[in-house]
Structures are given as C-alpha cells and as structure tokens.
Amino acid sequence: MSSGNGQYSELTELLEALCDDRLSPAQTVRLEQLVLADDGARRLYIEYIDLHGTLHWDTAQGSAGETIPAAVVTPVAATPSLVPAKMNAGRNRWYAASAAIAMLVVIGLGAAIQQRFFPANNNLHVAGNSDSSIFDVSKGTSTTIGQDGNSEEPLVIDILEDTDKPGHLPVVPRPDRTPTVSPIIAPGPPQVATNGTSPPNDARVQLASPVEFIDEQITAGWTLAGIDSSPQANDSEWVRRVYLDVTGRIPSADAVDRFLKDKRPDKRTLLIEQLLDDSAYVANWTTIWTNLLIGRADVSENVNRPSLQRFLRRSFARNRPWSEVVYDLVSAEGDNEENGATNFLLAHLNNEAVPATAVTARLFLGMQVQCTQCHRHPFNDWKQSQFWELNSCFQQTEVVHQRVVDPKTGRAKRATQLVSKPLAGPIFYENRQQVMRTALPKVLGVSIDPGSETNRRQELARLVVEGSQSQVARAMVNRMWQHFFGHAFTRPVDDMGPHSPVTHPALLDRLTGDFVASGYDVKQLIRWICNSQPYQLSSQYGETNIADDPAAGATPLFSRMYVKSMTVEQLYDSMLAATRLDESRGNRWDETEQQRRQEWLLQFVVTYDTEENDETTTFDGTLPQALMMMNGQLVQQALSAEGDTYLKRIVTSRDSETDKIRKLFLAALSRYPTAKEVGTFRKLLREQTAARSGGNRQQAQAEALQDLFWAFLNSSEFILVH
Amino acid sequence: MSNDETPSASQPPSAEFVQLFTRHQRRLYIYILAQVPSPVDVEEILQEANIIIWRKCEQFELGTNFLAWASRIAKFEVLKFRDKKRRDRLYFSDTFVEQVADEALVASDDLELRRKALIHCLGKLREKDRDLIQQRYAPGENGKSVADVLGRPVNSVYQSLGRIRRSLMECIHRRLAVEAGQ
User: For a disulfide at A580, which of A77, A646, A701, B96, Cβ 3.0-4.6 Å?
Assistant: First the structure.
C-alpha cells in the first residue's frame, strides 16, 4: 500500500545493497520476491532506482572532464528552432545533447553517438531550469563528442531481422500503427477477470495443480528445516476437523459413523465436496464474516445485523466471487434493510470514518494501519499521510436517518441509509508537529480523482480487486490459510506489510494468483487447502517435528495440524450438534433461534470503546471457563434426560452399555472409545448402579451416562479443534 | 531544419526528433537501469539503443508517444544484453524484468516530478552528506573507492550512503506530498 518511501525496511536494505553492487545471489532472489509481492514495493523499487540513476546521471555530468569543441557548438547555436534561446546561469544538459546531436547531423551520423551526451560548457547558457544539474556545480565542464572508441562502432544492427525470434518483441512499430505504451508490454500472466467468469488459463496447464503446489512447497519447507511431518491424521481426527473448519460444528454421531465405515479411497475429497454443499457451510461463513465485519456485539444502532447476515448468506450460498462481495461491501449504498452490505460501513463510520479506514485495510487488504493514523509506525510501512489518503475515500459517505412508513404495519419507523455526497477535494489532518496537512484519496499507490464527480468508494472498491495478484485476494488466501491451519503465512494474519515476513512466499503468491484466476472462487480455495497433504496430518507431533511449534514463536512449517480452540460460535453450534438440539430447534435462521444464539454468545463478548471499534471474547477455551459456561441453561437443556433429547434416546434405548458409551463418544468426540476407555467407563457405570436395583438401577445408569456426557462436553478434547 | 523535406533513409532527423531524443535520454536511462542494475552496463545498452533510435528516426511519427516508441527499442537492447550476459553473471529473472519495466514506464511521468524534488532535497542535505553522495556518484567511483579515499571502513560508508539515500527518498516523498496538497 505504500507508495514507497524507504519504509519497506527489508526491501530498502536490499536496494541499498543493490545500489552499492553488493547484493548476493540469494539477496537478489529475495529482492525479486519482495518487489513482485506488491505494487507498493514495485513502486518503491522504481523510485529507488530513479534516485540512484538520477544521481549517477547527473553527477557524472558535474565532473566529466570532457569538452565540446567550440567550433562544433556553433552550428547549433545558430539553430534557434532547436531550443528557445534563453540566458541562464545554469548549465543545460539537454541543450548540450541537442547540440551534440545536431552537430552529429552536421558532421555525419556515422561519426558517433556518444554513450552519453555530456553536459554543455559554459558557453551554452540556455534554457529550462528543469533540467539543470541536480547538483549546483558551478565549475564549467564540457564534453568531447566523437572521441571515444565506441564511436567507430558500425551501425549494422537490424532489429527487424530479430523480430521473429521467439520471445523477442517486435521493436519497430508498424508504420500504420501509432505506437503507444501498451504494445511494448509483453503479455504478462493472464489478466484475470474479477467478475466471476473464468478466464482462459492455458498458461497454467503444465504447472502443478494448486494442491500439488501446496504439497511441494510445504514439504520443501520440512526438508529445509530437517524435520519430518506428523503422520496422517486418522479418520476420526480428520472428520471432526473438517466439519469444524468448513461447517463450524462437529459432525453428528451418525455422520462420524458413516465416514469411519466408508471404504472409498477418496472419501475425504468426497466429504469436502459434501460439506461445501451443506447449508451449515453457508451458516459458518456467514458467522465468521459477520463477526469480522461488524463484530459480535451491536455497538451502533445504525447496524442491521440480520440484514448483513442475509447479504452474506446469499453471497456464500451462491458462492459469489469474493471480489464482488468485497466490492459490494466497500461501495455499498442505500437502505440498511434493503442492502445488507451497507451495514459493514454503517458500523464503522464513527470518528470521522477512522474505524472504517482501519477495518477495511485490515480485512480486505491485510494491512494494519490504525497506528499510523497518528504517527509513523516504527514497524509498519504505512505513513500517516497514507492512512488519511485511504480515509479520504470514506469522506463522501454519510449516514442519513429518515422516518418512513412501514408498508406492512402502516406505522412510522426509522430508516437508516448510507449515502454518498458529491464532496470534492482533500481532507485535513494534523501531523505530529500539529501542522495541518491535507490528504487526497489514494489507495495502493493509485490516486483517485478528487473531484465531486467521482464516487470514491466505488473507485476504492474497484482498485483493490484489480490485477492478477490483488491485495484482496492475497489477504483472503492468507486468512483462509489461517482458518484451516491455525496460523497464517504472516503473523498476524491481517498485517501483511513488507515488515511482516511471509513463511511461504512462493506459495502465497501462487495461491493468490490461482484464487484470482478461479474468479475469486471461495469454495475452490477451500478445496485446495482441504485436499492438500498438510491438511491431512495429525495434530500429534513426534520427536522429529517437536520444533515446529508456532505457539512457541517458531516459524510455522505446517508439519502437523496445529491445535485450535473452538470459537464461541463453534462451541455453541457443536453443543447443539452433539446433543442434537439443532434438530429439535428447527431452522437455524429462525429469528428466535438466532436471538437465543446471539444472547448466549454475548456472554463472552467484551467490547472496547476504542477508535477501531475493537472487541474481544473472554472465551479462551480454558476448562474452568468452559465449566462455568456449561452450567448454563443450554447445557442443562442439552443434558436433560427429560423430554425428547438425544441423551434420553440413548439412555432409554435397548443398546448394550458398551454401545451407549460408544454413541456418546461419537456424538461428543467424533470417535470410538478405545478398549481401555470402554473398560474404564463401564466400571464407572457399574459402580454407580451397583447399589441400586430395578427402576432405580435404570435411573442410576441414566444419571451416570448424563455425567459422562457432561464430562465429554467439558473435556479439552471437545473444545479443541485438532 | 529539414522538416519540410521528404524523409528518406539518408535524411537527418528533424529538429523536433532531436529534441525528443535528447529530452528522453535520462528517462530511457532509468528505464534500462530498472532492468539491469549496473550503471556501466546501462550506459552500454543505452548507447546501443540510441544508435538504433537514431537510425530508425523516420519510423517515428511525430506527435505520437516518443517514450513508448524509444523504450521498445531500449527494451530490445536489454533483451539482447541479457541474452549475452546470462551465462557469466547473475541477473534479474525474466519475470522480474518484465514487471519492473512496465512499472518504470508507467511511473515515468512521475519520475520527472521526483527529480525536481530531488534537487530540492539535495539542497537540504548537510554539506557533509551532500559531498559524500557527490563523491560516490562521480564517474567511475563506488562505495569502496570512496571509502578508500576517505580512509573509512567500507561498511560504514555503505551505511552512510544508505542513510542519505533513505533520507532523500523521504524528503522527496514529503516534498511531493506537499505539492500534491497545494
């Protein structure tokens, strides 16, 4: 996002080495990586090269001890049409160059074109300040033309002969065609439509598939680090993981049982497909993105949460291209009920849209800019001005309230709308020295027309999804990777600036490119990740990869599945799944059910009244907390052996004791108990029921099973995703 | 000059062509430098390119984009140079060169503004720093030779140069921001 001004610290260091000709081959590779990683870096590279080159070029002028013979200059001076003759104390190299060439014209082209048209001597007091030397060197210098060895070089290079060589660009424009900038640009990587249509993808045909590429890159990391991966996860571990990751809840006991008994070799791939088509997939990603976009708690009365959820639900259900979803969210306008996408910004337009700026950058561009709002951040590439340039994109936006009549009820109600006003010009902010500064809309180094005709948010929304390696795609890939593996390619996931090292840069690039090429197909991205080898691994680690522990600060190598804590939502939905309350409660989008869930979740949410509209959940997956929570109404109900509950069905069934224990294991932990576990729990049941007889004995067994189930739901095995 | 005469193979370039040619020299230089990181090599390539540009002058239609036209020729010379040198030195990858060349052209207009800002910023440097930069960029010099002359450890000179370039970059950026705000 930076337009580049020395704050990409690693890149700047490499550029310094480059300019002093001390770049190692490895550093060259790294430099390329960094420069190709984003537009800001590319821009910085050019600007740095420009500085370096200009210094070279201009300083060389200052001390070159060459002379232009006065006689040679004369004919040029007599050509007023060349350059307007204007007296000037400074030297003018261009004029000198013109002079030199004009002279060549006079004495014949073959004589020389000097490698540089060195500056004039003081006899040529001509013209444009703009090109006087950057050093105000007062001593006069002159240039000799046509005296160096190169001047005799024969002019025999015929470009046209070379043009049909493969890989070479035609150099000479066809006479019938106006040369423009574009023809010299060779066809790059396929330009990819971001509107959901799949582009022709022939360039990739012979490449490894994205899944193969993930495997290759991740495996290479293990080899380099000299570690072995964990073994493949067994089906129980994996099925629970993939359900939680894709659909946000654990599988039902039946689903586990079916999967474990499935003998098809590609059953994992088939299950991934099935889950992507499940309505729980839509629910899960709607939850995840609602939380990311507006948080769990309603902080602003402008926000219509159900309306945003509807928007997200439709988007994920239709698998709309992510670029379109982002475009809609960033450029949204209108009524917050009719256009659910408006609610994202409605939640963040307080404080002069500072939160809107910060959250947009964080979520969609993977950039943390909030600290740069007030000052330059030591670890962050962003500058204060850039924060306000992005912020300026939101300054046309306003929240408008109206009293409207609800056509259904005939009663007046408050309507909230997001509208754009035709504001023009810069915004003002104070820098650290309390000096008023201005900022014009600019994003990713591209300026947006500050006129009132421009809808800045639309421009912003358009710019961020442009290109075959768009930052929106990159940020999404990184976020998805983190979702499934517990760690992103950068730490944290939404701080992808050049100051954040990328663990697997080539992989991130490739997935970003492929994601764009797929038409921002979110399900496709999930497919690639879930079918990859690292996603199949166990979370158990051994001697060989104990060092691969990102939680202890190591760079993640993804040689095992890192254990994640359930989110509060996953926990809630998993408890419903385990106890089958989800079945009895009916449609998950039912208003009452939504409200019930929301109320439950909010017990764990604390909002901070900061400028970034932060919030956090107090839920951290620790057992004491889980225990506290488990004594709430939900668990009471779930574990009740009264009424038509799952537990009741198990308890009252004619199954053997062992089968009952097995079913509880499957329901809560998605696995069969080990023989030892069965033994232990049977013993426990016996002890509890031994003293009783008849109906009491039945009752005692029910209570014991209830305790058992309760214990499962409170175990760390339950609340972890592994 | 010869504007009104029918151009022919032997016809010298028009005054306007000469003007365009000279005005774009530095931009071509930077354009090539972005792709080939050694100033010495760049001079060689630019010289080759200039010869071709000069020879092909009649193929250029006045009024069209000179830089676009000339940079195609320069680009071809870069390719030739890279082919020639590929075996004996480590150079940038093709992808990289492709991308930065594009960027260099796109950024080209902006670069002129940056140069003006640079002039301003050099004026703001401490005299000591300005001298060091000037010595470093004098023809044939490099960080090592300057360090030798000054009797300073070469790494400390590299550090100073890095710092000065960094402060120039920042100053240019500030300067442009101020101008843009006005």
Answer: A646
Mutation target for B interface from A7, A49, A433: give the one with most B CBs within 10 A: A49
From A294, A437, A324, select the one nearest A375 (Cα to Cα).
Answer: A437
Closest residue in A to B100 (Cα–Cα): A42
* Strand bridging mode A605-607 / A615-617: antiparallel
Q: How many angstroms away from the CA of A431 is the closest CA of chain B? A: 12
CA atoms within 13 A on the CB side of A304: 19
Task: Measure the N-to-C terminal CA separation of chain A; round to a whole number of Å.
Answer: 36
**Separation CA B57–CA B22 (nearest Å):** 13
For residue A187, what is the DSSP state? -
Contact state of A49 with B104 under an 8 Å Cβ cutoff: yes
Domain ranges of chain A: 9-57+74-107, 280-463, 568-721
Across the interface, which of B65, B98, B115 has its CB nearest the CB of A54? B115
Q: What is the pLDDT of residue A9?
A: 85
∠ CA(A275), CA(A281), CA(A286), 5° rounding? 170
| Euclidean distance between CA atoms A423 and A427, whole angstroms | 10
Q: Give me the helices (H) in chain B, please.
A: 15-23, 25-33, 39-55, 66-85, 94-106, 108-124, 127-136, 143-150, 154-181
Q: How far apart, in whole angstroms, are the C-alpha atoms of residue A9 and residue B170? A: 13
A–B CB contacts, 8 A cutoff, strictly below? 251
Taking alpha carbons only, the member of B101, B12, B114, B154 closest to residue A108 is: B12
Instruction: Give the CA radius of gyration of chain A.
Output: 33
Give per-residue pLDDT as tens, A655-701: 888 898 999 999 999 999 998 899 888 888 888 887 776 667 778 88
Distance from the A385 Cα atom to the nearest Cα atom in chain B, whole angstroms: 8
Q: Is there a contact between B142 and A20 if contact means CB atoms under 8 Å apart?
A: yes
Torsion of CA B26, B28, B31, B32, to 10 degrees: -110
Give dist(CA A489, CA A624) in Å, integer.
32
Q: What is the ipTM of this complex?
A: 0.90
Cis upstream peptide for A265 (omega within 30°)? no
Is the per-residue pLDDT at B107 higher than 80? Answer: no
Q: What is the C-alpha to C-alpha distance for residues A536 and A552, in angstroms, rounded to an integer?
A: 23
CA distance B71 to chain A (A): 8
* H/E segment holding residue A720: strand A720-721
Residues A624 and B153: their CA atoms lie apart, in Å, by 61
Amino acid at A54: T
Contact assignment for A47 to B79 by CB distance below 8 Å: no
How, if at all, do strands A442-443 and A446-447 pair? antiparallel
- Cβ separation of B47 and A114 shorter than 8 Å? yes
Q: What is the pLDDT of residues B36-76, one digit of tens each?
A: 888 888 888 998 898 888 888 888 888 888 888 999 999 98
Tokens of A149: 């060895």
Judge contact between A53 and B115, C-beta under 8 A: no
Which secondary-structure segment (H or E) carries A607? strand A605-607
Query: Would you call B181 and A439 a contact, using CB atoms and an 8 Å cutoff?
Result: yes
- Taking the C-alpha atoms of residue A452 and residue A414, their distance in angstroms, rounded to an integer, is 29
Partners of A420 in the β-ladder? A397
Sort A190 into a burial class: Cβ within 10 Å, 0-12 / 13-18 / 19+. middle
Minimum CA–CA partner of A425 in chain B: B181
CB-CB neighbours of A365 under 10 Å: 24
Q: How far is A419 from chain B (nearest CA, A)?
A: 26
